[in-house]
Amino acid sequence: MFHFKSMRAAALLGAALFGLSMPSGAANAHTRLVSFHSSYEAGTIVISMSQRRLYYVLADGRAIQYPVAVAKPGKEWLGAASVAGKYTDPAWSPPASVKHDHPNLPNLIPGGSPRNPMGVAAIVLDRDQIAIHGTTRHMRASVGTRASYGCIRMYNEDVADLYDRVEVGTPVVMQP
Predict the structure, then answer these.
(1) Average pLDDT for residues 141-168, to the nearest whole number?
(2) What is the rounded CA–CA span in Å between residue 70 and residue 4?
(3) Beta partners for 34?
(4) Which residues contact 45 (CB under 8 A, 6 or more apart)?
């Protein structure tokens, strides 16, 4: 009997064993398995601000690469962090800096709301109000740009895939 961390992994294995193709909307639609030689241990999340890519480091010099939106100029951060929590369909309260720039935002947007900028999942970091999270349908076009107030924005299907791979305590590194 196999044990899978996600239904996606089970579906991919089934597709491979039986020669089936995955639907175009599969969670790996934006991801790529890439060569990634570094000193980081397997299981580390490495974010390249300049490339606008997040890498989930695997063993043997490989990583899963995801496109992301990174912080806009003046909102960047660099260095080490770690995963402090994981939440599905999280509610969102705009931080003071966001509320200042967008005073018409409500004080709370419930989880699951199509207007919630956190999307389907949030991987919260041990930095003040910073998360790796999904996005709304309206904000999907921002992935691949410098658009956030410090958070790392992913497609919902990609953050769901990453969510299944990481644990609280997973190291995260933000590079220029």
Answers:
(1) 96
(2) 30
(3) 63
(4) 54, 55, 56, 57, 83, 132, 162, 166, 170, 171, 172, 173
The answer to whether 137 and 158 are in contact (CB under 8 A) is: no
Query: Alpha-carbon distance 136 to 165, whole Å?
Result: 22
- From the list 100, 102, 138, 151, the catalytic residue is 151
Residues of the chain with pLDDT > 90, as a percent, come to 69
Q: Are 56 and 87 spatial neighbours (Cβ–Cβ below 8 Å)?
A: no
Q: What is the dihedral of CA 75, 136, 98, 46, to 10 degrees?
A: -20
Is 133 a catalytic site residue? Answer: yes
Place of tokens 């299981």: 43
Q: Which residues 6+ apart lie within 8 Å of 120 measured at CB?
A: 88, 89, 134, 156, 159, 160
User: Any idea which residue has 């991987």 for tokens?
Assistant: 123
State the pLDDT at residue 135: 93
- Catalytic residue, from 3, 100, 133, 138: name it: 133
Q: CA-to-CA distance for 68 and 142, rounded, in angstroms?
A: 8
Q: For residues 82 and 21, which has the higher predicted lDDT (pLDDT)?
A: 82
154 φ/ψ sector (left φ>0, alpha ψ -120 to 50, else beta): beta
Q: How far apart are CA 154 and CA 121, in angstroms?
A: 10
- In terms of residues, how long is the chain? 176
- Answer yes or no: 100 catalytic: no
Report d(CA 126, CA 4) in Å as an integer: 28
